[in-house]
Amino acid sequence: MVFLRFLIVIAVADLLLWRRRCGSVTLLVSSTVLWFLLERAGYNLLSFIANVLLLLVVNLFFWAKSASLLNRPLPPIPDMEVPEEFVVKAADMMRVWVNHILRIAHDIAISGNLILFVWGLISKVLSNGGSFNVSLISLNCVQNQHVEIPFID
To answer: GO CC annotations (predicted)?
Structure first.
């Protein structure tokens, strides 16, 4: 394990000290392009990742179609499966989280925990800012016109 860390440190040092020129140039150019996209162009990291994955899928699609037309081998893609243990573990964690939220909602609604209700109201006001005020104004206007609506967020 120590030897592996030593090799990683040596590899990073080689990149940063320009001993491996091709790797260093690649690192510099890619970090500069990523900085430009995220900071200067205002591009979002999530949309960048989604577009890269979409480009990858389109590329693999055309590769597979052209391979079947030109009698070439298909692209080497491993079988992508989500293990059942992972799904069960994620569902169990989600169940615990939902039960905790339902317990808090029950405590607020049934037990009349006023402090928790006020904290929730304050967090709602602070998190949404102006949209909460717009919701209150629109709710007030709708109530004055006697129009019933089930929910306004």
So the answer is: endoplasmic reticulum membrane
The tokens for 131 are 């949209």
Is 75 a member of any domain?
no
Alpha-carbon gap, residue 112 to 118, rounded angstroms: 11
Domain that holds residue 97: 83-126
- CA angle centred on 143, ends 141 and 144, rounded to 5°: 65
Q: Tokens 């081998």 sit at which residue?
A: 73
Alpha-carbon gap, residue 38 to 10, rounded angstroms = 29
Please calculate the CA angle 147-151-153 and round it to the nearest 5 degrees.
Answer: 120
Could you tell me if residue 152 is inside a domain? no
> What is the rounded average pLDDT of the residues 67-96?
87
Domains in the chain, number: 3
Q: Mark whether 108 and 90 lie in a shared domain.
A: yes
Given a cut of 50, is residue 34 above it in pLDDT?
yes
Q: What is the pLDDT of residues 130-150, one digit of tens each?
A: 554 545 554 444 444 444 444
Q: Does residue 60 belong to any structural domain of this protein?
A: yes
Distances (CA, A) of 13 to 6, 16, 24: 10, 5, 10
Query: Does some domain include residue 20?
Result: yes
